[in-house]
Amino acid sequence: MTAIAKAFSNVIPAISPDFDIIKTVAVFCGVGLCVSLILASYGLDLSAGFF
């Protein structure tokens, strides 16, 4: 994670204030995706036999 953050900060230094907005949107999208997957799997048997 640190390497990715350093790479982004080196590549995109001019738009770092905008990067905070992008990071916030990405976090909310990630949380929404996780919640959607949890709700979609509700009631499914996700034991080892499922795979």
pLDDT < 50 runs, ≥5 residues: none
Q: Assign a percent range to the helix content.
A: 55-70%
Count the helices. How many?
A: 2
| Head-to-tail CA distance between termini | 29 Å
Overall strand count? 0
Q: Give Rg in angstroms.
A: 17 Å
Order of helices and strands: HH
What composes the largest sheet?
Answer: none
Which word captures the global form? elongated
The assigned structural class equals: mainly alpha
- Please indicate the percent range of residues in DSSP E strands (runs of 2 or more): under 5%
Average pLDDT confidence is 75
Describe the structure.
By secondary structure, the chain is mostly helical. The protein is elongated, with a radius of gyration of 17 Å. It has helices at residues 2-11, 16-40. Helices cover 69% and strands 0% of the residues.
Summarize this entry quickly:
This protein has 51 residues and is mainly alpha-helical. It has two helices and no strands.
What structural keywords apply?
51 residues, mainly alpha, 2 helices, 69% helix, 0% strand
Topology of helices and strands:
Blueprint: H1 2-11, H2 16-40
